[in-house]
Amino acid sequence: MNSDRFEGLFVPMVVPFNKDESIDEAAFRDEARFLLGTGLDGISSGGTTGEGALLSDAELLRCLELIQEENTARKPVIAGIIRNSTREVIPAALDAKAAGADALLITPVFYNSATPDGNYEFFRDIAKAAGLPIIIYNVVSTNIISPELFFRIAEIDEVIGIKQVDPVKLAEIAAVCPDNKKVWAASDQLLYSCYVAGASGAISALLTIAPELCVKQWQAFKQGDQSTAMQIQKMLNPVVSLYLERPFPAKIKELIQLQGRNAGIARRPTLPSDPEVLEIMKRALVGAGLRVLQA
Question: Which residues are tagged catalytic?
Answer without folding.
Answer: 137, 163
